[in-house]
Amino acid sequence: MKEGSPAVSVILPVYNTEKYLPRCLDSLLGQTFSDFEILAVDNGSTDGSAAILHKYAQKDSRVRVLSSRPGDVGAARNAGLKAARGRYVMFCDSDDWVEPEWIETLFRAVLRPGTDMAVCNCTLEAEPNNGRDKAAAEGMLLKYRGKMSYFSARRKLQRVLWNKIFDLDVVRREDISFPEGREHEDNAFIFMYFSFPGTVRALKNRRLYHYVLRADSLMGRLYRRVRTGHEMDQLYSRRFVYEWLVRRGYWNAQAAAFLAELHQELFWCRQNLHQEDLPRMAETAMALFSGITLPPQVAVSQVIQAILHADTQRLLSFLSRPDETVTPLKYAGIKYGRKIQGWTQEKLYVFGLQVYKRYAAFCGGQRFILGLPAGRVLTGRQPEPKEIKN
Hints:
about 400 residues, 17 strands, globular
């Protein structure tokens, strides 16, 4: 890092959070680690947030106030990245707050030999009527500890920014940025960042971040199926990633992982849409991804095949299916069965043994009994799409 520059830059996008902002800033300025700067980016707040930021900046020189395009969190984060002077960069949301050891713990962890990133756990702070069910809320929690590769981390870790510390040199060298004008910009950023060899150190036992589940946040409105115009932003953010992969020459190596995740994101979007919105979603997917070229030997689901070949009716037939059901199974004379809501991973144990596990990489997933493949999961009355090669 440059002499006189802080070790860590904390990027804090701010938009109409005056109710929460003082608590957030106080927790950041109360860190046990002092060698950092706060890049508070006001992106067009219409409440008292901007005044609060300038008040704190006058009291503490570590707070730098920037501004960006109104309501655009991706643009705000990009403005922060451009202005950051630290060796490492961290992100905080202005309605959340952190424990005093948040920066120091992650910074010390990332400096350990063989570590390229560190990630901590969080505490969920649920406000009334926030729209998340228990599974969606607990999906924010870190479930792993120890070291893992970036390849494993991309599949196992939450696609959130606030529990991680990033190497700013890598971000700038690889031209990693956030899609602007769209939500789910964090998902895009993290997929790109994990496209290289590296090692993550997961600190499961360190709950250093307080994540607030709000009803009036964008994600809260999305989970409650309130139309905001951002319901399909995850697909646009995925297109942003595709263009970056092609531009950087990483498409052939990352195509399989990219398309498997695109499949999952389609059905994640589907769960938060009204039935009448599905044709528009299918048209959007076609416009963004039909006709892209697959590298040799890359296997994709029939859902992705429908998109690549611009087969709208075929795609709609997949998107319109009901939630999955599991056919009855027997183990040790015990009959069991359960309905799976949505497209998440499930595990089932009998007498302490894991007898069922579902992977959601492709439509319908795959069922395992005692770790061995055991047929397929049925989706409604229709058979699960087979994995095929282009």
